[in-house]
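Case study.
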Amino acid sequence: MPDFLLEIGCEEIPARMIDSASLELRERVHTLLDRERLVPAGALTYLDTPRRLAVLAASIPAAQPDVVEHVLGPSVSVAFKDGQPTPAAHAFARKAGVDVSHLQRTATPKGEYLSAKITKKGRSAAEILGESLPKEIASIYWPKNMYWRKPSERFVRPVRWLVAMLDAEVIPLEFDGVRAGNQSRGHRILADGSVSIPRGGAPYIEALERAKVLSRGQREKQIRKTLDAATRTIPGARWRDDKSLLDTVVNLTEWPSAILGGFDPEFLELPEEVLVTVMRDHQKYFAVEDSRGSLSPHFLAVLNTDGDPGGIIRHGHERVLRARFNDARFFWQTDQKHPLRERTAWLKNVTFQKDLGSYYDKVLRVQRVCSWLCEKIRQGGIAVRPGVVHKAALLAKTDLTTELVKEFTELQGIVGGLYARVQELDPDMKADAREAVAIAIYDHYKPASMEDSVPRTVEGAVLSITDKVDSIAGMFALGLQPTGSKDPFALRRQANGIVKTIAEHKLPISLSQLFKDAREAYRGSAAATAKLAPAVDYGSAVKHFLRERLEFYLGNTLGFRYDVVRAVLAADADDVVDAVARAQAVKGVLHMPEFQAIAAACKRMRNLLKQAKETGIEPAAKFQPLPDSADEERSLAAYVETYAPRVETHRQKKEYQEALFLLSTAREPVDAFFDKVMVMVDDERIRTNRLALLQALLKEFSTIADFSEVVTEGTESQESSKQ
Amino acid sequence: MPPTKSNPLTFQELSLRLQTFWAERGCILQQPYDVEVGAGTMAPETFLRVLGPQPHKVAYVQPSRRPADGRYGENPNRLFKHMQLQVILKPPPENVQELYLESLGATGIDLRQHDIKFEEDNWESPTLGAWGIGWQVMLDGLEITQFTYFQQCGGVDLDPISAELTYGLERISSFLQDKDSIYDVVWARDPETNRITTYGDVRLADELQFSAYNFEVADADFLWRHFELYELECKRLIDGYEMAKRSPASEMVRTGLKGLVDATGKPIALKRYPLLAAYDLCLKCSHLFNILDARGAISVTERVAVIARVRALAVGIARAFVDQQRGESATEVEDEPVLPKKVKKRAEVEPTTA
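After joint prediction, the assembly is written out as follows.
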C-alpha cells in the first residue's frame, strides 16, 4: 500500500493563518480518503511552514476495493413465462452484466425475485486523488484571498509548486496551472533551488530537513532551545514566555535560531509597557527579565537562518530597536507638554462614531452613567469613590490624542494610566486619589478577552462597565447590533467583559436598569436623537443580547451545564451576581435523587398547565380544600402552605442552597400526589382547584431556577451546547 | 559591527544600482513624476498603467511627500519627503520573489549573512480606491520593502494583476551605511576629491522649511480654495468624458465642455481626451488634502468626507481611462469602428467598476 504525499508550495503564507489552514487541509484529505474508501492503514501526518502545507498519509490502498452489490430484479413470475425468460429478465441480465442463466433467485416477503451480484471495480487512488485534490485545495478557507493571475483560482498567496505522490509515483494533478511533480523547494536562502522528493513519508521529511526546512514541532523546539541558550549568557536572566509570540515566530520561519541583543539601559526609564509593546508587537522580540523579574536591557530575536556568527544580524536588530525606542521616548516627552487635563477639550475633534458624536460627547455620557452606577453600588453596600470614577471618566479617553497612542494604538488606556500617574490632574487632588484615577484609566479597556483579568479596583470596574455599556447602547439604538457572525464593533466581546466584571467584582447591578440608564444618557444629544431608532426595539434587543451573553458566561466561562444555565436564567436574567449564586446552588443539589424527581415533576406540572391553557381551562384563583379533595391533594397543599414562607425567607437572604434543600423535601408529597391524583378530571371545580395547586407549587419551585428546564436521566438535552 | 562590506554604496549609487538591475530585466526606467505625490503608487506610471490589459514593466524613483510625517529634520528616521524606488511588473513573473531577492544582492547585501522575512502586510489606499495583498519585507528586523500584488485600483478589478515593489531607499541606505540618522547617510562621494555630500546637505532644508510651512504657515482658506478649484476642473474633465462621447453634444453641454467639443458639438478625438490632465488635477487635490490635514485644518468628521471626494475623482478617472484604452485598442484593430460593437464594449466596462 503506497504512502500518499501532498505538498502545496506557496509564497509566504501569513503566520496567523497557517495553523488553521493546515488543520483544515488535513481534515479535508482525511474526509476525502474516508469518503473514497481509501482509508490509510498508517497515520495521517502533516508538515507546514510559511511556504508549504503538506499532508502525508501512510499506506493508503492503491485503489478502492471492488464492491459487490446484490441487486434485485423483477419478480420471478414476471421474469419467466412458461419457464422461458421474458424481456424483463433479459433487460435485468444486461444491466447486471451477466447471462440470464447466471441470475440468482432471492426470496423476499413479497415473493421470489431475480437477483444478481454486480461487482463494481474500484478506481485507482491516483485517479481519484488527481481529480479531487484540486477542488479540496481550492476550498481551503482563508481570511483574505488574492488573485495573482486571472482568470484563476484564488488562494492566500500565489501557489508556485505542487508535490503529489503515491510512493515514488507522481499523481497527475493540476491546480491553477501548476502541475504536480516530485520537485519541492527548500529554505529560501540556505538551500539551493529545487529539492527532489524520492517519495512520501520519512524520505520527504528527511529531504526537506537536508534542505533546511523543519516541521512545526521541530521549529518550536529549536526556538525554545536557542532562546534558552542565548539567555544563559546573562546570569540569572529569563526570557518571557509568550505563547502567541512564539506561535508567530514559529510560523515565520523554516529553519529558526535565536540571537540575543541589547539596548541602552537608559531606555529602561520608559514604562515597561511601552518597551515590551515595541519589542513584542512591532519587532516580534522576546523580552528578557532579570532574576527579580524586572525588564533587563536585552531582547531576543528569532531568525529564519542558522545563526549569526559575526554578529551582523544582531547589529541590525539593535539599530532598529534603538530607533524605535528613540521614537517612543520622543513621543513620551512631547506628550508631556500637554497634560491629559488639557486634552479633554481636544476630544471634541475625535469622532467616536459618526452618528453618536465625538469622544467628548461620550465622556459626558459616561460620567453621568458612572455617577448613577456609583450610587447604586453604594446602596448595595459596596464602597466606591465616585470622585475618582468621575475624574477617571473625564480623562480616560484623552490618551487618544497623544502621539504615543497614535503610534502604539494597542496601548490605549495604558498610556492614559501611565500619564495620569506622573501628571498633576487637579491641584487639590491627593496622591492616593491620583493613583486610584490612574489605575482606573489604565484598566478601563479590560478585560480584553474572557481570559484577561478584570479591572483591579471597583472604580476601574465601574468605568470599564460604563464605557462599554455606552458603546453597546449607542450601537443598539442605531440598530447596529451584531447579527450572526457579524459583529464589527466587537459588541459581544464588550458585553462579555461587562458580565465578567460585574460577576468578579460582585456588583449589585440590574442589567436592564444599567442599559436603560445608558440609553437615557443619549437623550438630548442633537446628533443622537435624529438617528436613534425607537426605544421599544432597544429594550427587547438589549434584553435578548444580554441573555445570550449571560448564557455564554455561565456556560462557557464558568462551565455550568447548559440546562442548569437555562433553568437559572429562566427564573431571572437581570442580576449577574445572583444568577451565578443560583447556578452554584442548583449545581450543588442536582445530583440528589430528590431533584431528579422534582425536575421530572416540574416538567409534568408545566405540561399540564400548558395543556389546560391550550384547551381554555383556567386554574382557580387559589386552592381551596374541598370536601371531595383527595388526601394527597390536601397534604400537598399543606406542604406548600408550611414550606413556602420558609423557602422564601432563605431566598430573600440569598441562601439558595438552604432554600433548595428545603424544597427537596417536597419530593414525597409531590410524588404521592402524582401517583394517586388525577388532575384533568371531568369535574371542573376539582380540576381548576388542582390546577391552582400545581400553579402555586410550580411558582414556588421556579423562583431560583426553572427546574422543568433541567435535563433529567432519560430525557434528552435539546441543545447540547450553544454559543 | 558594520553590516556589509567596508565600502557601502552611497545613496545615489544605491538608487542607480537598483534601477540598473531592473532595467536589465526589461523594465522601462521612468523619471520621477513631476506632480506632488504621497507615494510612488500615485504616479500615473503605476496608478493608470496597472489598469487595463497592456503588460507593463517600469522602475522609477519617486520622491514621496507626506506632510504629516515632517519632523523639522529633528527625527533621525522620519521625513516629510522620502524617496521610494518603485517597480511595477505587470503581469508578475513566476519568480518575482526570487528576482526581488536578487536585486538586494545587487546592492551588496549578502543574504546568507542576514535574516530576511516576508511578513504579512496588505496595502490599502482609501483615497485611490486601491488595495493589494502582500508583505513587508524585513531585513534583520528592518522593513525595507513593501511587496504588493495589486487587486484593485480606482475601484476597478485588475486583470492582469501587477506586482509592486516599493523599496524605501533611505532605510536601505542607512542600513548599508550603518547610520543611525538618515541625515548622516552619504548621498555622493566625489571620486576625484573624495569629498562627501550627505543626505542632510541635500535635503535638510526641505525638511525644515516644509515642516514649517505644512504645520504652521500654510493658509488653510487659501489651500481650500485651491482644492476646490482643482476638484472642479477635474470633475469637469471626468463628467465631460461621457458627455463628449455623446456626439453631438447639446448646447448646454457644449458650454460646460469648452475645449472638449468643437463649435458643432463634435467631441475631440478619444485618444486626445485629456484624462491624464484630469489625473494631475486629482493628485493636486490629494496633496492639498495632505497639507490641510497636517495643518490641522480638517476635523475628523470632515476627513472622511474629503477622502471620499478625492476617491471619487480617482475612481472616475480610472473608469474613464479603462474605457479610453479599450477604445484605442479597438481602433487599432479596425480602421472604422462599427458603432454597435463599440457600444457593447463600453457596456462591458460597467460591471467591473462596482
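Observations recorded in class. The interface with chain A takes residues 1-4, 75-78, 91-92, 94, 97, 101, 111-120, 122, 133, 135, 139-142, 149, 151, 159-161, 175, 178, 180, 299-301, 304 of chain B (CB under 8 Å). Residues 300-333 of chain B form the longest helix (34 residues). We will return to this complex in the next lecture.
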